[in-house]
Design a protein that fits this description.
With about 190 residues, this protein is an alpha/beta fold. Helices cover about 40% and strands about 10% of the residues. The protein has a domain of about 100 residues. One of its GO terms (molecular function) is glucuronosyltransferase activity.
Length: about 190
């Protein structure tokens, strides 16, 4: 009994705090807050569209298996691919590459892998490399404009990240941040 009376005396010292006895008395009151409808949460902004990549994967004599491996490692149904074996590669390798791509079910189904049928001469140290890259870009633009980034790789290259990780990393990146757009903002004249 002494403990209960001392708790009551301590509570009376802190008169500004609500006590247990006063809470039950207010249960019959109606507060204005109950009549206010809750404010709906703000709508979440739509997720940015998934970026799409366009690849040029090129090789030379003896690169058929490396090019095939690289293509499979990079393949994603959202992306677009142009593959090229240059004039130095034997005709048999070029025909084998075209045959493999034609027989690959997923490539045929999605239709996003294209072989350059007429091989170009590429010296890898001169303007022919640039011409080959521009040729691949022209093919891609003629087939579809549904890509945001262009990546030029050789058959010897191999990805260090998965395509899903790469697509995720580029999702929030401004698609207008490319070479031509970026340099024109700086006022450079070519």
């Amino acid at each position: 009994m002494g403990l209960v009376s001392s708790i009551h005396s301590i509570n009376s010292l802190f008169f500004f705090l609500p006590s247990h006895t006063h809470r039950n008395q207010t249960s019959s009151l109606v507060f204005v807050e109950r009549k206010i409808t809750p404010v709906p949460a703000p709508a979440t902004p739509p997720a940015p569209p998934t970026p799409r990549f366009a690849y040029l994967i090129s090789g030379s004599k003896g690169d058929l298996e490396k090019l095939w491996r690289t293509l499979h490692a990079l393949y994603h149904p959202l992306n677009h691919y142009v593959v090229h074996l240059d004039l130095e590669s034997p005709l048999e390798e070029r025909l084998e590459l075209a045959s493999r791509i034609e027989k690959q079910h997923i490539f045929k189904e999605v239709g996003n892998v294209y072989v350059i049928p007429k091989s170009n001469m590429v010296t890898y140290r001169g303007p022919t490399m640039v011409a080959n890259t521009l040729h691949a870009c022209a093919i891609l633009l003629k087939r579809t404009k549904d890509w945001d980034w262009f990546i030029n790789l050789s058959a010897s290259d191999y990805p260090l990240v998965t395509q899903d990780d790469l697509l995720y990393a580029f999702t929030n990146l401004d698609r207008n941040l490319n070479f031509i757009e970026h340099t024109s903002r700086l006022g450079w004249k070519l």
